[in-house]
TrEMBL record:
It catalyses: L-gulono-1,4-lactone + O2 = L-ascorbate + H2O2 + H(+). It comes from Pisum sativum (Garden pea). It comes from the Eukaryota. Residues 3-182 form the FAD-binding PCMH-type domain. Pathway: Cofactor biosynthesis; L-ascorbate biosynthesis. Its cofactor is FAD. It is an enzyme of class 1 (oxidoreductase). PANTHER family: GULONOLACTONE OXIDASE (PTHR13878), L-GULONOLACTONE OXIDASE 3 (PTHR13878:SF125). Belongs to the oxygen-dependent FAD-linked oxidoreductase family. Its EC number is 1.1.3.8. This is L-gulonolactone oxidase. InterPro entries: FAD-bd_PCMH, FAD-bd_PCMH-like_sf, FAD-bd_PCMH_sub2, FAD-linked_Oxidoreductases_BP, Oxid_FAD_bind_N. The lineage of its organism: Eukaryota, Viridiplantae, Streptophyta, Embryophyta, Tracheophyta. GO terms for molecular function: FAD binding; L-gulonolactone oxidase activity.
Length: 182
């Protein structure tokens, strides 16, 4: 279905705090939101927060500009990345530091948040295999919250948290992926 996707507004957070404020705004104003990236590669019926073009309750939160954080922890062989960082940028940065990724999908334009939330994969027999989300050690997600919590909160989930596996390959339903550590 090649229908045009409409939204009331779009915001481009550059920090985790701005991402939390965007989710808070959506919850406080009872809007339907969709997390999007600079590149879109999906079926509109799945990516649009609403299908009725007369409905102005849709809101896009774009991670296009939330892409500056790549922190390499050489001692623990780990990296923490903002969700809007594109895969090619991550590959280049880890290579500059003498490291490589265990697995990666073929298309390098995908964002880290996108590759994690959609279950994109490459091929690898090493470790946990070629699925990129299987390499995640910790994921930070911005989720809706109560009024007393400011309508949005930041959850840091590791493998011991009951929502950890749900946050991976969540298609953005659980919340907005902010940072990924793997």
């Amino acid at each position: 279905d090649r229908k045009t996707c409409y939204a009331l507004n779009v915001t481009y957070p550059t920090t985790e705090q701005q991402l939390r404020l965007a989710v808070s705004y959506v919850v406080q104003n009872n809007l339907k939101a969709k997390i999007v990236t600079k590149f879109s590669h999906t079926i509109p019926a799945l990516s649009c927060p609403q299908q009725n073009t007369n409905n102005n309750h849709a809101f896009f939160i774009s991670t296009e500009k939330y892409d500056s954080g790549i922190e390499i922890d050489a001692e623990n062989l780990a990296v923490t990345v903002d969700s809007g960082v594109r895969l090619r940028e991550l590959i280049d940065e880890v290579e500059k530091n003498g490291f490589s990724l265990v697995a990666a999908p073929y298309w390098e334009g995908v964002t880290i948040g996108g590759v994690i939330s959609t279950g994109a994969h490459g091929s690898s027999w090493w470790g946990k295999g070629g699925a990129f989300h299987e390499q995640v050690l910790e994921i930070t997600v911005v989720v809706p919250a109560s009024k007393s919590e400011g309508y949005a909160k930041i959850l840091k989930l590791d493998s011991h948290h009951p929502l950890f596996n749900a946050a991976k390959v969540s298609l953005g339903v659980l919340g907005a992926i902010s940072k990924v550590n793997f």
